[in-house]
Design goal:
- The chain has strands at 3-4, 8-13, 31-36, 41-42, 44-49, 57-61, 69-77, 85-93, 98-105, 117-123, 130-137, 140-146, 154-162, 166-182, 186-201, 205-211, 218-224, 227-232, 239-245, 248-253, 259-266, 269-275, 284-290, 294-298.
- The chain is mainly β.
- The strands form 2 sheets. It has a 22-stranded mixed β-sheet that branches. It has a two-stranded parallel sheet with strand order 1-4.
- Strand 7 (69-77) and strand 8 form a beta hairpin.
- The chain is flat and about 70 Å long.
- The protein starts with a strand and ends with a strand.
């Protein structure tokens, strides 16, 4: 099977040419992108979603870098409902294996600033793993789901960023994961080999993290004006960094016995040194908090 090295999906915007339509008139959009991965070895998927899309909506692909992949795009727009757009894209390799992507645009009313853009990625059981899943949304949310827990989809590098969005996912198996969002929450679980980075502003982080490679892994969680609630579900001997400003920081460990002591106080919080694994001597937990409580609970 061939490998798809690079795929960019850009919902682009285009001003209406209708003279009766205000050029800057905004509509409430719900953009849903569902990527179904075939048996091809997909190496890199990039999905972009923008909130503000004008009345005339056009979706388009950036040019793919691989010569052996052709792009077939189709746009359906109901003349009776010009604000409702359904777009289908099919990427077909020379061996006939296809990758289907569906974007749906559903408008309810005009000029609503609370509009959301949603990216929904599903990986069916038995389909190929991903080398990189990189997703950006603006004032939207990201949902990562696998249809079967019997085989976790493996993502070597999971990278999600959202300006005003939220992340909610089931257990994600990955080598590394980077999640960044503003003004909303992160609620997810990770089964990772190397490490996890979670960052949020004016929001809460709730995460359950299982580290497979405890000897050389890391967890870096940062929240501003929000709270952090992290459950460690493994014997951990790497670095944990939790930083909360004007919020609360809490870490719960159910997989190992930890001994810790207060090392020093800093302006923005406290630093705890701990030996999570008796065989490791370089393990540490870093907790930083400003104007908020810090609590540790081990069982």
């Amino acid at each position: 099977m061939f490998g798809i090295d690079h795929l960019d999906v850009h919902p682009t915007k285009q001003l209406s040419k209708d003279k009766h339509t205000p050029k800057k008139q905004k509509i409430l959009e719900r953009v849903k992108a569902t990527a179904k991965f075939p048996t091809a070895q997909v190496k890199r998927i990039i999905i972009f979603s923008e909130l503000w899309i004008d009345v005339d909506v056009t979706f388009g692909f950036d040019r793919l870098e691989r010569d052996n992949i052709k792009v077939i795009s189709g746009i359906y727009q109901n003349p009776d409902s010009p604000n409702k757009v359904k777009s289908n894209f099919t990427v077909t390799g020379m061996d006939g294996v296809t990758l289907n992507l569906l974007l749906e645009n559903q408008s309810e009313k005009l000029g609503d600033a609370s509009a959301k853009a949603v990216v929904d990625v599903r990986v069916p059981r038995g389909y190929s793993d991903l080398e990189t899943l990189l997703i950006y949304t603006k004032q939207g949310s990201f949902k990562y789901d696998e249809t079967s827990l019997n085989r976790l989809p493996y993502v070597t590098n999971l990278h999600y960023e959202s300006s005003l969005g939220k992340l909610k996912s089931k257990l994600v198996k990955a080598s590394t994961a980077i999640i960044k969002t503003k003004a909303n929450s992160i609620d997810t679980a990770f089964y990772v080999e190397k490490g996890v980075t979670l960052q949020t502003y004016d929001a809460n982080i709730t995460s359950r993290i299982f580290l497979q490679n405890a000897d050389n892994s890391y967890v870096d969680v940062r929240a501003k004006n929000g709270s952090i609630d992290v459950s460690m579900l493994s014997k951990y001997s790497g670095l944990i960094g939790l930083r909360a400003f004007k919020g609360s920081t809490r870490i719960v460990d159910r997989g190992t016995n930890m001994n810790f002591e207060l090392n020093e106080a800093k302006t923005r919080g406290y630093v705890f040194n701990t030996n999570l694994n008796p065989k490791q001597t370089n393990s540490s937990i870093l907790l930083e908090n400003n104007e908020g409580p810090i609590s540790l609970q081990f069982s």
